[in-house]
Amino acid sequence: MSVLQALDHNARKDLTPVKLRAKAAKFAKATVKTQMASFKRFGIWGDWDHPYLTLDPEYEAAQIEVFGEMALQGYIYRGRKPVHWSPSSRTALAEAELEYPEGHVSKSIYAIFRLVSRSSTSGDLLREFLPNLSLAIWTTTPWTIPANADNDVIHVAYQTRNNDVVAYGIDSAVAVNPKLQYAVVEVHELLGDVSITPGDGKKRLGNVLKEQKKPFLIIASDLLSTLEEKWGAKLVVKKTLLGSDLENYKYIHPIDSRECPVVLGGDYITTESGTGLVHTAPGHGQEDYVTGLKYGLPILSPVDDDGKFTEEAGRFSGLDVLGDGNVAVIEYLDQCTSLIMVEPYKHKYPYDWRTKKPTIFRATEQWFASVEGFKEAAMDAINKVKWVPSQAENRISAMTSSRSDWCISRQRTWGVPIPVFYHVESKEPLLNEETVDHIKSIFSQKGSDAWWYMRVEDLLPDVYRHKAPEYEKGTDTMDVWFDSGSNI
């Protein structure tokens, strides 16, 4: 990244992968010499004439061996999951590559999704309030609301906790906490004027509360007084029920008028903020992803590498999700009388530590190390180590036990490539003992640059060489922490 930042626009246009890697290697070696000189001045002892470098061919070959062994044991897999994505770097990032600067403010919104019916054959507890009843949701990422509203209906069947099989043409949902109590409230008179001109960075009312006829709303009971104060409105409770009672109800998505389900989420749905109801887009959040798997929701994400809406997002296509796209979604919801309020929300938000710009959660095809696959062995190893001070064991044990699967692929040119070939038509990966051993032998002699300048037929072992036209080499590289972690 430092190399790219030092180049002007014209110089970047002429960079081939091999040229960029050469510049990166030169920069890295110069940095090593500078650091080494500093260590010597501090009187630090070391075998300075024979340092190990992760860019040495021998080290790269050993890293390919480690990757191969993990892959063959089932610890490496490829999947489509939401990951931290940096539009400014155009790559996935690990948690260690993020920072959370003070002062980040998001445009949070309170919006409504109109409830229409209950999909199961059991009793309808809310029939008396239909069709004027809506779910009130809160989100700090309004751009995720149209994230799954494409033009093709996807029919999904899933089994509920009552063993009812329900089919939906869906790709988003609203999640509730089954243990929380919810209230149907009637909006009475406004208690104060919180409407402020758009664009001044302060909260403002949407058209929902400005309408003469206001809908009944579903919110978490514990948030009644908080929302009354925030919205400047009197909310009168008409009925209460548990979150579990809301499962199988359907609502109309405000972007494309599609029927979507109310689903049961987990303990991540609280009454600390918001409304107690969470808009769920499985392609744009870890909790959403887990809930989506439970209900068979497609893991879709109509956002490209630059953080802009793709054609799947319809009217929002081409807009930056963190900029004008976010604003456009808010304004569209207001036009559709689906917006209760816009409010600035100061909170911790992940930034790319290299570019110092905000990231997003985005579902993409990536390579993962299955931490669950070797977590038990790691915990056993921790217990066998003598820790000084002894309290350090508690910290590393807590970190390891709670660690989720590790996204190890990066969309960068520099670094050690993930040694995988993809079938041109099916996109199925080719990764086995023969291919790994062949790449390892090439890297030990020529270094990992060979991946970029050698032909596919030469990178493939003899047994696959005749199939070379059917395959293309991948362009992902490994996370630098995988590089350093391969020191064996």
List keywords for this structure.
488 residues; eleven-stranded mixed β-sheet; single chain; 13 helices; four-stranded antiparallel β-sheet; elongated; alpha+beta
Largest sheet geometry: 11 strands, mixed
Total helical elements: 13
**Percent helix:** 25-40%
Q: Name the overall outline.
A: elongated
- How much of the residues is beta strand, in percent? 25-35%
Radius of gyration of CA atoms, rounded to a whole number: 26 Å
The end-to-end span amounts to 27 Å
Describe the structure.
This protein is of the alpha+beta class and 488 residues long. It has helices at 2-5, 9-13, 17-41, 57-72, 224-231, 286-295, 324-335, 371-383, 392-401, 433-446, 450-453, 456-459, 480-485; strands at residues 76-86, 91-93, 98-99, 105-118, 133-139, 155-159, 165-169, 173-176, 181-190, 204-205, 216-220, 233-242, 249-252, 259-264, 277-280, 339-346, 351-352, 360-369, 406-407, 409-410, 421-423, 429-430, 471-473, 477-478. Strands 4, 5, 8, 9, 10, 11, 12, 13, 14, 15 and 16 form an 11-stranded mixed β-sheet that branches. A 4-stranded antiparallel β-sheet has the order 2-1-18-19. Strand 21 and strand 22 form a beta hairpin. Helix 4 (57-72) runs antiparallel to helix 10 and helix 8 (371-383) runs antiparallel to helix 9 (392-401). The longest helix is centred in the N-terminal third of the chain and has 25 residues, at 17-41. The radius of gyration is 26 Å and the shape is elongated. Residues 148-170 and 195-200 have low confidence and may be disordered.
